[in-house]
Amino acid sequence: MTAIPMSLPAVVRAGEQPSAPTIARPDAASLLGLEAAALTLMANGMSGTAERLFARLADGAVDGALWEGRATLARETHRADAMAREAATPGFVPVPSAQRQPDGTPRFVLLVGESCVATREGAERFTAELGGAGVDAELRHFLDAALDGSNGFIDWQPGEGYGVLAAATAPCRPVAVVARVASEHRDGLERSIALAAAGDRVALCGADAVTLDDVVAASPAPMLHVRAGSAADVPALLATGRDAVHAGRIASVLWSVPAASGLRGTAEQVAATVLSVLGFAHFAVVAGAEGAELALFGEAPEGQTLVVSVSPAYLASQLPGH
């Protein structure tokens, strides 16, 4: 698998240990004085003065090496809160993205219906986005690494739309994105797309109106990464996309599995077999020294929840001299 293209995350082998970023931890005893004043000023809208105090904390005047991370975190939190307030819409809860721009602002703000957040699953996803790695983190890491402007993304099971907005705001643009959206999520996703100024990159279609072949045929992207949903969704999706598969338009099929059992469940074995018969190879997204990397699923650490099934057509298209 050394021929995995650079447009996909790099491949690591079993036994290799990807390096993790080192996070400096400030001295808690130093959290007095200028930081407290700067946070108070920022909370009260006096951002200019607060920025000057943060600059003093970061430029070495007051233990700059220890303060820089805390100042950045405070600024990012303030900006995220400001974006969420700006996006406030009756009936929706604004959720700042866990993914950030280089200046620390959220890549997007997703408007989630209040009724969706009120459910147990919706509340768990809301909490994961605000306080963790983000919803569908493995999928979003893969998309950032794999989308290169020449391929696109189809989200067959987008839910509230975290993956859709992540693809539409990927570092390499433009990216053609299509989402097959359930009616209860459509209004919020449309508003979120407009808020992100991504209307020229995202097309929405009804959940029961199209086949995969229809969507692929209408896409300007020569090849597309397709999020199928769960393992149980894979066979039905591929049944509606035979032409796209045989024409070599599918770059990969992305599908979720339980963290505890991986590919060992019945539905997971069926999905893997169907894709293997078509020549797809199965990978997992793992953290590497330079971002997301791919490892053969059976060699990846336990607990992976996303299978990246890469098509032979996509691998062949990336070989040297193609």
Descriptive account of the structure:
By secondary structure, the protein is α/β, with parallel strands linked by helices. The chain has three domains: 194 residues, 3-Layer(aba) Sandwich (Rossmann fold); 57 residues, no CATH class; 45 residues, no CATH class. It is 39% helix and 19% strand. It is built from 13 helices and eleven strands. Helix 1 runs antiparallel to helix 2 and helix 2 runs antiparallel to helix 3. It is globular, with a radius of gyration of 21 Å. The relative contact order is 0.12.
Shape-level CATH architecture of the largest domain: 3-Layer(aba) Sandwich
**Strand/helix succession:** EHHHEEHHHEHEHEHEHHEHEEEH
Mean pLDDT: 79
Count the strands? 11
In whole angstroms, how far apart are the ends?
17 Å
Report the CATH C-level class of the largest domain.
Alpha Beta
For the report, how would you describe the main beta sheet? Answer: 9 strands, mixed
The amount of beta strand, in percent, is 15-25%
Overall form: globular
Pick out the low-confidence regions: 1-8, 10-32, 60-66
Work out the count of structural domains: 3
In terms of structural class, how would the helical and strand content be classed?
alpha/beta
CATH superfamily of the largest domain: Vaccinia Virus protein VP39
Helicity level: 25-40%
CATH topology of the largest domain: Rossmann fold
- Widest beta sheet: strand line-up: 1-10-9-11-8-7-4-5-6
Radius of gyration: 21 Å
What is the number of helices?
13
